[in-house]
Amino acid sequence: MDAGAMLLSKTGTPPVPMQPYTGTVGTRTDRELAQSLSRMANLNEATGGGTAMGAPAATGFRSAKHTPQEWHESNYGKYYQSFSDRDNAERLRHESKQLSNETQALTQRTQSDVTKKLAERMHDINFWKFELNREVEEMIEETDLLCAEKKRLENALDATEIPMKIARDNLDCRARRQNIDLVGDKVELALNKEVEIISKVQDLLRRTIQNSDRQIKLNRGAKHKLTMDWSDKVQAYAIDEKCSNLNNNSTEIQYKEGSAKLDASQSTPESWAEFSHDNIVRAEHEKMASQELRKLIDQILTDTSNDMREQCNTVNTEFAKRIEEMNDSKTKMENHLHKTVEEIASMEQNIRDLEKAIKDKEAPMKVAQTRLDHRTYRPNTELCRDPAQFRTVQEVGEIQNSIDQLEQKLAESRASLKDLMDTRMTLEKEIAVKKNSIFIDRDKCLKFRTRYPSTSRLVGYQ
Fold it and tell me: CA dihedral defined by 223, 225, 227, 229, rounded to 10 degrees?
């Protein structure tokens, strides 16, 4: 028994077999075959299965052979599949012929409509070609005028290099001031402000030059877009003209795989017309912006020149005040240095006196300690803490206390002397610092500032 038969024997009782069909299958119509198949299915459902004729009565056992009912069901299944396939084939032939006629008519109508649309498109392209060419000529004229104004800005920017070098050199020189003189005074603030003003002027001039360059590029870019748009339309016109002349009998036609695929980047008729319109509008806008920029340049040069000259005068005034202030400070420090030197001499003498006083305490200390040591050799009860013993011990303590006080004063005097020496050195260094600062401000910075450029050069006329 095979696996299939064994499975059937375990799942239920074998169905009751139908009587063998004795008619001639080949002479029956398709309708009769369908009716017979339907009756067979109904009968099978009504009987619900049973014991096959001649099959063993034992449950759970079945022969490996098929039943007559299964044989008939298999045959009728093949008949019905043949009927269904023929019916589908006949229907498809009819639909195919109808579809072929309809698509032929649709293709002809569509091709005629496309030819008409191409002619309309060529008319639109001609209109925009004329408008674009006119705008190109106007943009070239405005760009030439802006280039002339840009040259003046470049001359003015070159003139600001000397003031910037002067201000930065002053700051660099003053950075070599030493110690406390390296202070952010009013001169420093004025110089930083001067650098800031010149830097802002340079930035403004550079930005204006950049704006001029940008505007020139925008003008040329607008012109380039107009030119490219015009060129594209010339090329598009030629392509559309060639396409409008193509027909089914043309020798150039061939399959182009993927040509009918729509690309999301392709323009629409609205966006196509808007593109050329926007190019013209943008060109008009850039032309107006160029005219406004030329008016702005002259005002910028006048304002920046005035600001730079005004700050230059402020810096010179602060330099003069600072030099006077440092001279006064140097004089006062020289006076303090003289007094400090005198005090150092007095303190050195005081230290010598304290050292002598401490040395004078050595002999009394030795006497007292020797007495105490000798008295330790007294015999028996004679080794008594009598008043002499107590007073001698007290004497040692007093002498040691005096020495400690004298040594403390000596240490304080030496520390004071060190402070005085440090102060003298500090004053000497500070005086040297002041001399260095005066030299930097008066002999280096102010002399270099005499090279400041004139107003006419700052406005870009030289």
Answer: -150
Predicted TM-score of the model (pTM): 0.54
Task: Supply the pLDDT for residue 375.
Answer: 78
pLDDT digits (tens, 9 = 90+) for 309-367: 999 999 999 999 999 999 999 999 999 999 999 999 989 988 988 888 888 888 888 88
361-368: Cβ within 8 A, 24+ apart: 361/399, 361/402, 361/403, 361/406, 364/395, 364/399, 365/396, 365/399, 365/400, 365/403, 368/392, 368/395, 368/396, 368/399
Q: At what angle do helices 161-174 and 186-244 cross, to 10 degrees?
A: 140
How many whole angstroms separate alpha carbon 17 and alpha carbon 14? 9
Who has greater pLDDT, 31 or 421? 421
Query: Which pairs from 440-448 meet CB under 8 Å and 24+ separation?
Result: 440/173, 440/174, 440/176, 440/177, 441/174, 441/187, 441/319, 441/322, 441/323, 441/326, 442/323, 444/173, 445/169, 445/170, 445/173, 445/174, 445/319, 446/316, 446/319, 448/166, 448/169, 448/170
